[in-house]
Amino acid sequence: MEVWEVFSRRTNDDPLVHVGAVSAPDLEMALVLARETFFRHGEGVDCWVGRRGDLHRVANPETLGGVTDKTYRRAEGYTGVGAKLKRVHSELASRGIAIDNPRPGR
Amino acid sequence: MTYEERTAEFKARIDAGEKIEATDWMPDQYRQAALKFIEMHANSEIMGALPEREWIPRAPTLRRKLSLTAKVQDEVGHAQILYRIAEDLGKSRDTMFSDLVNGRTKFHNVFHYPTYSWGDVALIGWLIDGAALVTQHALLGCSYAPYVRAMRRICAEESLHLRHGEDMTLELCSGTDAQREMFQDAVNRWWRPIMHFFGPPSNPDKDVLLYWGIKTRSNEDLRQEFFSTYVPKLWDLGISVPDADLRYDTATQEWMWGDPGWDEFWEVVRGNGPMTQTRLQWRRAMWDSHSWMRDVFSGIPRAVA
């Protein structure tokens, strides 16, 4: 018996997501068991299986994305930009630099 | 079932909002249109990294240098994801790269222009990425499922780039007169290419990409959204737009805009832009000098000792 990892697509445009595993002697049986175990209630529109031994985990997953400060690669590195826009706008408006032309929503 | 019947059935699936997978049967016209579109997108990502890359050594602070490097990496990463999807539509990556560097396929018009100052970097990060994000958001409704999944990821990263670009823009616009002039100068030079970016107003009924649901919104529709999102922000920052005819008509609720010189657009997309050859030469030089690495990865047999 081998372990087969099972992946599902919930709707047609979703990515494959790991939903669990089945034990089966061969591919045909793995597909049957995956179908019967995880999709009886119509949980997805697509199902894939792969031998556990054919899937490989990355080494040291805790280092994914780097171990030093890389907030400049993430949204949290830019929090406050929206507020800054408002602040800069009100400052430029008070200096008479902002341009006040007709625009949507006014 | 005849080819015409299968095609009609396929078209009905698309009209019903169904998504197409790489393994599905598809008419030749759909495959070709999707491939051409996605390949052009991939080309644009990899060529789009070049104008900004030129500024990594000249970034004003370490933080800006890191941010810009990360963004350039993201753009190249997008190209890798997109080329993989295009490959599944039937064209090899080697052929796509060779067609790109030999000028047989296209990349977006905005990447054919030079960058003169840090103001250009802020502008690209904010307005060019903003324009790209308007078009890319519209692609989340594309009929080709693998592309939609890629676009979800790409849009998330582009939103981050937009913040990064907005941050740089705000820094310049709230700075000294020289900094403000630097950004205004960038807007003055880039506005026409940005108008060109959305393409000429076209007849949606004759657009093969709209017909197959590869694109879901017309050029003009996207341009109007871009105006509504970014023009008021530019004005709020006291930055003028170099188009005397640009105004929002409150009665029709539409933006009116002037002719951006479409002859220049056609010249650029034909490969005659100011930086087209320089950038393609760079790309070609990289392609050639890295060939040994592709050979290693593709498993050329080891010499026997």
Summarize the structure in words.
- The complex is a heterodimer of chains A (106) and B (305).
- By secondary structure, chain A is of the alpha+beta class.
- Chain A has two domains: 2-54, Ubiquitin-like (UB roll), CATH 3.10.20.520; 69-95.
- Chain A has two helices and three strands.
- Chain A has a three-stranded antiparallel sheet, with helices on one face.
- Chain A is elongated and about 75 Å long.
- The model of chain A has no long low-confidence stretch (mean pLDDT 92).
- Chain B is mainly alpha-helical.
- In chain B, strands 1-2 form a two-stranded antiparallel sheet.
- Chain B contains twelve helices and two strands, in the order αααααααααββααα.
- The longest helix of chain B is centred in the middle third of the chain and has 29 residues, at 145-173.
- In chain B, helix 3 (62-88) runs antiparallel to helix 6 (145-173) and helix 5 packs antiparallel against helix 6.
- The model of chain B has no long low-confidence stretch (mean pLDDT 94).
- In chain B, strand 1 (247-249) and strand 2 form a beta hairpin.
- Chain A binds chain B through residues 12-15, 70, 72-75, 77-78, 81, 84-85, 88-89, 91-93, 97-104, 106, and chain B through 18-19, 21, 63, 66-67, 70, 145, 148-149, 159-160, 163-164, 166-167, 170, 173-174, 228, 231-240, 247-248, 250, 253.
